[in-house]
Amino acid sequence: MRLTQEQMDRYQEDGFLLLDSALGDDEIARLREAFDRDCRVPGPQRVAEEGRDEVRAVYASHHRQPEYAGLVRDPRLLVPVQQLLTDDVYVYQFKINAKPAFGGEKWSWHQDYVAWQIADNLPAPLQVNVAVFLDDVDEFNGPVIFLPGSHRSGLVNKARKATAKSAQHLDPDDIALSEEQLSGLVAERGMVSPKGRAGSVVLFSPEIVHGSAPNMSPFPRRLLIMTYNDTTNLPRWDGEPRPDYVVCRDTDPLRALDAPFLDALEGAAA
Amino acid sequence: MRLTQEQMDRYQEDGFLLLDSALGDDEIARLREAFDRDCRVPGPQRVAEEGRDEVRAVYASHHRQPEYAGLVRDPRLLVPVQQLLTDDVYVYQFKINAKPAFGGEKWSWHQDYVAWQIADNLPAPLQVNVAVFLDDVDEFNGPVIFLPGSHRSGLVNKARKATAKSAQHLDPDDIALSEEQLSGLVAERGMVSPKGRAGSVVLFSPEIVHGSAPNMSPFPRRLLIMTYNDTTNLPRWDGEPRPDYVVCRDTDPLRALDAPFLDALEGAAA
């Protein structure tokens, strides 16, 4: 469950790390069921694709679904995050990007931390993103594309565009890198998109430049992203804070479960 | 220059065939220069990206640029087409899709022959498309995606949508497969996108289902597509024929050059 030193080093070097098939098929089946259930819960935490009925993203499913409440404390995910950050972390943001079949749209090239600095006045990039593949990810269904090592260049672009699309949740379009910025970075860093079976996990830095293409396939590509933050690095809102489904308010340090989340869930139910 | 029996069989089986690095770097450099030159020629043969100034496609460059006039008779391309079709073929359509950096947009899933049957009353799918990579093609810059073997299912969708976007050149959106049609075909056939260095060539069937994703990269992805047609299979227009830059009028059988197109061009210039 712990990362090896080599894995730690690779994360620091590349800004991301793929953990192939970290979760099992039965676990993924349960997480998909929980997502389907959560997609039927009305409310602002459910964001639709532009001009379509389909769900583009759902926020904070761990507040509503026991499977996800367990998953955020699953030792296979939480312990690596603690190794990379610090023992005391909490879930700052939790979202599932659905990327539906046929044209779930692309995400512009961006760095997550730019958004969080602007929107939440988050003091430092002391986060780790944990992306869990809820579907097989291949080159056709809009995988996330990283510029390896780009997190080590710091923030490329600190200002939000004047023509901001979104109020509550920052749209990557609002903080997208310019063509010039990206050309330079890609020439230097190249592009990599980790792929793998459902249940694979990618840890990635809040400062790594990434984007994703549309989903060209007839199958959905659901991706869970949990962002853990250092508990000493809380948002400092000047004005109205963002809603609690976008920025979670429970900042108590998380303690890892003793067992994978499904075992813990079955134990609790027994 | 001739295809082997194995290559012929693979084309018949899959509906496409990749010829890796069929053209050399010097040849590609000259073809790019000729394309740049042709992009500056004003006229309706130059199609812009929707809402952008950039060129999406240019038609019939072989009418204006000697490099392309030679290329259509290059033995490395024409002889394989003759093997697959018949000795007497001509260029029915010639286009270069530019797919500019950052969001050169996707092409919907479609079968070429549907368009040609509708627009030109072309009697039979007796064509071979020859796609020449004018840039390296990778998973990030919007490669063409094929459903292997889908050409053997015949035409999935014969009717053009009522909400047709385009008049002169048929837009793939107008003849796109439905989500249901594509789901079934992908489940059966899978998806493949041939990649390779600039100078690589893909031969593909007019009936194969294909599409392509947007270009996520900061680099252009220029793709030349020459469609050869059997000279006994000419368009039979009921009304006004499409313009001669979209459907070429010179239907004389092409004879292969004795040498690669650049050698022939230098010879002619000497």
From TrEMBL, chains A, B:
Q: Spell out the SUPFAM superfamilies in the cross-references.
A: Clavaminate synthase-like
One GO MF term on file is: 2-oxoglutarate-dependent dioxygenase activity
Please give the InterPro entries that the UniProt record associates with this protein: Phytyl_CoA_dOase-like
Its protein name is: Phytanoyl-CoA dioxygenase
Tell me which domain of life the UniProt entry assigns to the organism this sequence originates from. Answer: Bacteria
Q: Which Gene3D superfamilies match?
A: q2cbj1_9rhob like domain
The record's section on Pfam families has:
PhyH
